[in-house]
Amino acid sequence: MVGKFFLTMGLTADIIGVMEVIEMQEVMTNPKIVELQMTCGACPSQWQGKTDSGNHVFIHYRWGFLTVDIDGQRIYQKTIGDEMSGVLGTLEMKQLIGTVFEFDD
Question: Three-state DSSP class for 94?
Answer without folding.
Answer: helix
